[in-house]
Design brief:
Blueprint (H helix, E strand, L loop, with lengths): L9 H4 L6 E10 L5 H19 L2 E7 L2 E8 L1 H12 L4 E12 L7 E7 L4 H16 L6 H9 L17 E7 L4 H13 L3 E8 L5 E10 L2 E8 L7 H5 L6 E5 L4 H15 L7 E6 L8 H7 L4 E5 L5 H20 L11
Parallel strand pairs: 2-5, 6-9, 6-10, 10-11, 11-12
Antiparallel strand pairs: 1-3, 1-4, 2-3, 5-7, 7-8, 8-9
Helix pairs in contact: 4-5, 6-10
């Protein structure tokens, strides 16, 4: 298995920030048996063909649908698309995004599988809505399209008329252990909300679990997303970094573990159009030593918080006020939606 650090030069080897064609489609899956086995076979083909052609791809399977996001030189991308279109494992392809601009995916492959209790028709409705907007000349960034299709906000507390993107998104990763996942599940239990489980993978990286929960607290709707730390290297995760208001780093107090987590987060922020505020949650103040300076060197904002307990309620009591401050700041300027960089 290739180490995670093999990824970052992919963009440089394929034209850097030169504009490429960016295409997204949704299609109805026609697969028998394990979806993981099918995704694995598609990944093997795609890594073989896409990588030499400089085409980056993210593929989602959810509720009987595939959604694919592709980026690359127009001709290479079309050549691959012609082959994919003819594949009997899906049908009824519908384009939901088409633009030119800098690469947003900086690695050849990402896979996402989402487990949820929605009907095939729910996804169909979201595809139709995006198509309708596209037909009327309105188009959103690939990240926004992906989020609207795969993980739309359903919470009834989402402000009516505020738009489907008007909620705060927070990513949380730990230097060790499963703390972020326990926090998301605790939030789900005490808010009475479903936790959505997803699995991601890259071309080379290990399988990554990520869970999220949506809930309303003190007049705002939040999505808190727990992710295993090695997920930060996935091209799909990196493409979504500008979508978050904060990345919470659950620190252990041991620099041997905490610094590598910081470095993974900082690496994921390199070259982004916007970066989230980093919020370190540590067992004691000394664990933040050096983090602020490192953040400053990387041009990132770092907030320090302490909680000397693994109790989720206590942790949330510390985190919530620091996350809420952000809402006041953006209310005047609008909610962050990853801009469509053309
Ligand atoms: C939803 C979906 C997405 C696919 N994406 C790709 C892709 O990005 N690149 C690729 O080469 N093949 C992709 N495939 C597989 C191709 O359709 C085709 O089976 C494969 O490229 C054949 O190459 P091989 O015979 O070398 O495996 C995809 C198939 C499906 C069903």
């Amino acid at each position: 298995m290739t180490p995670v650090s093999a990824q970052p030069d992919w963009r440089a080897r394929h034209g850097g920030d030169l504009p490429v064609a960016r295409l997204m489609y949704a299609s109805q899956a026609n697969v028998q048996g394990s979806i993981y086995a099918v995704m694995e076979r598609i990944r093997a083909s795609a890594v073989r063909h896409n990588e030499p052609a400089g085409v980056a791809t993210a593929l989602l399977y959810q509720s009987g649908w595939f959604v694919q996001w592709k980026e690359g030189a127009g001709e290479a991308l079309l050549r691959i698309m012609h082959r994919v279109e003819a594949d009997p494992r899906h049908h009824s392809l519908r384009i939901v995004h088409s633009s030119r601009g800098p690469r947003l995916l900086d690695g050849p492959w990402s896979t996402a599988v989402v487990h949820c209790n929605e009907a095939h028709a729910d996804m169909a409705q979201r595809v139709d809505a995006l198509r309708h907007e596209l037909d009327n000349g309105r188009q959103y960034s690939p990240q926004t399209v992906w989020r609207r299709l795969s993980t739309p906000m359903r919470h009834p507390g989402a402000a009516p008329g505020a738009g489907p993107d008007a909620f705060q998104r927070v990513l949380i990763c730990a230097a060790e252990g499963m703390g972020p996942f326990h926090l998301v599940h605790w939030l789900g239990r005490c808010q009475g909300e479903e936790v959505v489980h997803r699995r991601f993978a890259g071309a080379y990286e290990w399988d990554v679990g990520t869970d999220y929960v949506d809930f309303e607290e003190e007049g705002r709707v939040l999505r808190v997303i727990a992710m295993a730390r090695h997920g930060l290297a996935l091209p799909l995760t990196r493409a979504f970094i500008p979508d978050y208001s904060h990345v919470v780093l659950v620190l252990s107090g041991d620099p041997e573990r905490d610094c590598p987590l910081f470095e993974r987060v900082a690496q994921a922020c390199v070259g982004q159009v916007a970066t989230p505020t980093l919020l370190g949650l540590a067992p004691r103040a000394s664990a933040h030593a050096g983090m602020g300076a490192m953040a400053q060197r990387c041009g990132l904002t770092y907030l320090a918080a302490e909680c000397d307990s693994k109790d989720e309620k206590l942790q949330w009591q510390v985190l919530a006020p620091l996350l809420a401050g952000w809402q006041d700041a953006v209310n005047s300027s609008g909610w962050p939606v990853v801009p469509l960089r053309a």
